[in-house]
TrEMBL record:
Pfam families reported in the protein's UniProt record: DUF4283 (PF14111)
Natural source organism: Gossypium anomalum
Matches recorded under InterPro entries: At4g02000-like, DUF4283
Superkingdom of origin: Eukaryota
Domain DUF4283: 20-94
Name this polypeptide is given: DUF4283 domain-containing protein
Amino acid sequence: MDELEISLEGRDGGCSNLTRFMVVGKIHAKKILNRKGIFNILKGIWSGDDILCIREVEGNIYAISLARERSYRKALAEGPWSVIGCSIQFLRWDKVDSISKMDFSSIQYWIQVHNLPMEWLSKKNVEIIGSRLGKVVEIDDDLVRNGICRSFLRLRVELDLGRHLVEGF
């Protein structure tokens, strides 16, 4: 049997404002969560005029069109977010691949490292700890902010959702 090939065209300008700053979010939950509840929570994360459109793609996966680049960057940088006790992770959509082909097999979290002596609060030690959990993406080793000294360091770690967490953390 011959393969059927169809060439399609993109819409002229009609959707560009909806896809310009679009993120795709997946809620990591064992069951499908209430769509109306999710819409209300997502609308609460950003101010009303920041969200152009929220679309449920398939159970627990949502496409969110944002009006401003600042909001787009916030969605990607400050997550994952909490929705009804579950994590929602936002990824960039490259506008080429289907949303259903996006890879949500890992998630990034900010982690705080506490209870180390001050002289051990180093970037290298935090990197060693973080690498036991997953892939270290970023380290915030600024101990002093606005004249206040912190007793912990933060790091952003990418965790493989197919693996169990390391015990003892």
